[in-house]
Specification:
Elements lengths: L2 H9 L1 H4 L7 H8 L8 E5 L5 H9 L5 E5 L3 H10 L5 E4 L6 H5 L4 E6 L8 H14 E11 L5 H7 L2 E7 L6 E7 L1
Parallel strand pairs: 1-2, 1-4, 2-3, 4-5
Antiparallel strand pairs: 5-7, 6-7
Helix pairs in contact: 3-4
The protein binds S-adenosylmethionine (SAM).
S-adenosylmethionine (SAM) binds next to helix 2 and helix 4.
Length: 179
Amino acid sequence: MSPKFTRNAISNIKSTGTFFPSSRFLANKISRLIPDNVTNVVELGAGNGAVTKSLLAHMSADASLDCYEINAEFIKLLKNNVSDERLTILERSALEIANDFGNDAIDVVVSCLPLALFNDSMKEELMAEIHKSLKPGGLFIQYQYSLKDRKFINKYFAKNTLKFVLRNAPPAFIYLCEK
Ligand SMILES: C[S@@+](CC[C@H](N)C(=O)[O-])C[C@H]1O[C@@H](n2cnc3c(N)ncnc32)[C@H](O)[C@@H]1O
C-alpha cells in the first residue's frame, strides 16, 4: 500500500475513484495482455505509477509509453517513482488523446480512469476519442470495479472480452477490446 497515494486519493476522491493504487496482480494481468510487437502504448490516469511500472517491465526496449495524469501530486509521485527513457508524462486530460496523437496512431490504450465518476457525455467523448486514436486492430484495455459502464464499452468496441482480478482492493474487471 502507498500512504501518499491514499492521502491524495482521499482528498481527490471525485477524480481518483479509489483509495488504493492498483495491486501488482491487477497491474501484471493488464500488462500481460499487451502483445510483444507493439511500438506505442498510452496509459490514461497513471496515478503514482503502479500500472505504469508494470507496463514498462512488459514492453520491449524500443517501445514508447505516454501517460496522461491531471493530479499535480500524483505527477510528482510518478516522476519520483518511475524513471525510464521510454516514458513521457503528459500533464493534461486524457480527453486530449486524439488531439495529441491523431487518428489510427496508437497500438494499445490502457485506461485506469474512474469511468464510474464521469458523466455520460464525458464517457461518450472519451470512448470516441480512444477509438479514433487507436490503429485498426489496436487494443483498448480498461479496468473497473463494476460492470456499470459495459454499455459504453460495447457501443464503441463490439469486439471485447472480460477478465476478473480478485487480488485487488477492490476486486476489478478488465475489459480487453479491439478496434
Ligand atoms: C483509479 S486511479 C488509477 C491510478 C493508477 N493508474 C493505478 O492503477 O493505481 C485514476 C487516476 O486517473 C486520474 N484521472 C482522473 N481523470 C483524469 C483525466 N481526465 N485525465 C487524466 N487523468 C485523470 C486520477 O488523477 C487518478 O490518478
